[in-house]
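Lab notebook, bench 4. Still working through the backlog of constructs that have no structural model yet. Next entry is a single chain of 151 residues. Request: give me the structure tokens for it.
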Amino acid sequence: MNTHDPRSTFLVPLPSVRRAARADALEVEGRFVGSRSGDVWLVRAVGEIDVDTSKKLEKTIAGMLDAEALSIVLNVEDVSYIDSIGFGLLVKTKKRLAAKGLLLCLVDPSAHVRRVLRSAGLDMVIECFASEERALEAVNQLVPANGQQSY
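Model written out:
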């Protein structure tokens, strides 16, 4: 019997990892791990977000939002590459969250990711932060527990 609360952690497998360092997250084969941090979903991505991995990320995010609609902080510090499919998923997720008064924020995008965000004009749409702590602070200031943004 699985006693793990499905609302606290969502997984898409990470390569060659059996157990996460934190007790509130489990990892199996894949590239994305998600967990809850207060009233925010925190997702960590590793490697590439492209045509081969976007479906896994989409499943991770959809599972989280189906369990509970919360803002998402996506840590992309270990993402070396993202293609148009990956950016399309970010835009789709941003729209889905915005319709509920919630936010999508990126953490520490690489030079490649920042360059593509800027060239697509998405740097004006998706907020980026230097650290998870700053992103979480910003989300908690802008989106109270009821999901209504305050500006």
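Notes after review: The first strand starts at residue 9 and ends at 12. Residues 1-30 have pLDDT under 50 and may be disordered. Flag for follow-up if needed.
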